[in-house]
Design brief:
310 residues; alpha/beta; D-Maltodextrin-Binding Protein, domain 2; 2 domains
Amino acid sequence: MFADRRLRLSFIGAMLVALLGMVSPDVHGWQEEYPKFRYGVQSVETQGAALTRYEGFADYVKEKLGVELELFLSSEYAGVIQAIAGGQIEVMDMGASGYAAAWMETNGNIEPLVVPREEDGSIGYYAVMFVRSDSQFNNIEDLEGASFAWADPNSTSGYLFPLVSLRGMGIEPEEHFGSVVFSGGHEQSIIGVLDGAYDAAVTWTNDIENHTRGGIHMMLDRGVLEADDIRIIWVSDLIPNPVIAIRSDVPEKMKEDLREMFLNLHEDNPEVFREVARGNSPGYVEVDHSVYQIAIDLRQELQRERRSRR
């Protein structure tokens, strides 16, 4: 009788092991195919500052997902776009214009995961044009013949939306300003204006008065900039917040796990969340591709414009 019982228990144990082996790949099978969380980040600050910003996030990813964080940083926005299009990364954090460029480059093979929410419940921010506070420039008209810097050709607030807005006002930047250059990034634009290399430039902020998140906030937070060093002379309409997006061809379970991780980050680890979200926010929320269609439309319009000039 005891032998029969041991046989039955042995059989049940073997069945449980087999069942667990069958269940496991369905629950967390994507980690075997993607042992690293390859995450691309746009160059809105220096590489050293960005590496420091994501140190705590690497530990959080390991704890929550059981995989290593492999952070992909590029000195140009195009680097992140090319990386996701070439399959070098699965996830990216970029502005609306960068998302639009990646969506076009991959023939629609990316989709939004989450977007940071603002205190008022919105998911938008502003492009701003700024000058040194001690300069004689008070508006865009005063900048006729002055030196001006965009951030990057793939920047939302540092190029695409301000360019379209200026043209809507009847101002062609290349004709209005004395010189127009790309600084290489938001931090470079701000430092360039402070140092006198440019008379004006554009960057981004979520709050015109308090700068609780965005390019200006990051430099204020690090003590590189004082609030009264610059003066804002133009503000855009509301722009969709930078989005964390993922390749559409990865496993659905991977998308679900990553989405859940980001949605819970502000409660699980507020300090890490603040670094990843680049400032204060009530947390990430889910977002639909349709929110970023405006950026795709604007980029496609610029493409048609350039082709017509050839």
